[in-house]
Hints:
40% of the residues lie in helices and 17% in strands. With 289 residues, it is α/β, with parallel strands linked by helices.
Amino acid sequence: MKVLDGKGLAEIIKQxxxxxxxxxxxxxxxxxxxxxxxxxxxxxxxxxxxxxxxxCDQCGFESTLIKKDxxxxxxxxxxxxHDLNTTEDIDxxxxxxxxPAHIDEQRITLAIDPEKDVDGFHPVNFxxxxxxxxxxxxxxxxxxxxxxxxxxxETSGAHCVVVGRSNIVGTxxxxxxxxxxSPGNCTVTLTHSRTRDLAxxxxxxxxxxxxxxxxxxxxxxxxxxxxxxxxVGINRVEDASRxxxxxxxxxxxxxxxxxxxxxxxxxxxxxxxxxxxxxxLNTLEASAK
Length: 289
Ligand code: L34
């Protein structure tokens, strides 16, 4: 079994980006600029945003973090989105999800200028993605593709079972892996909470993408020997032995699956860092327009 080292790969890619940024800067003085809006004080979101800001530094980008209390109104947040849409100096921006319950996430996403939507969440970008047109790809699926590519994992003709149908992971990765592309050309089964015999579906997968949000949901006895298992879940479970009081576990039971799988991503250090790096790649792209 080979561990897919997302963390290590992310560092290599950020180094590559930093070199490109240095070249661009020397040529025309341009520096990519990412803005991020963080609403509320969800500890996981804070941690992800910290990683994004740190990655901007590593890549030589400028970054702007806009932090707002969760008492912010939808109208006020729309105003911020509008400002970011029209601030020329900002190449791309994201509004970190989830948002507080009183704010309509869809309305916020729709307000983002697709040209600055480096999350690839706007329906214009999602639609382009589905048709194979150039667009900003959502960061997590994009990070998964990059990992499959760099580790030279064969996807063509493979049977891929995606567990979870969210707008930001399950649905887009299903589309991307089924497309006529490389990585791609998979036969994809998109499974979810209403799937009749989930274990039977997973058992025949050459590639499993786990994005359900349930700790240790997929165990070794469910996985076909030699399969590639991509764990998208990041769950905080209480652990008194850790100084933070919790530890991170994926949707995959690493211990048992590592004895059966051919390739497996760890949590932390797998898909998460690749998500952040993909956002950096999209921002670099946005700044070149
Ligand atoms: N708008 N909202 C928007 N864009 C996104 O792309 C995201 N996502 C998801 C949640 N909401 C979003 C992220 O940024 C998930 N996500 C994300 C980003 C970074 C990491 C994980 C998820 C990450 O850095 N994970 C580390 C551990 C982080 C920790 O210690 O908590 C890892 O090694 O997996």
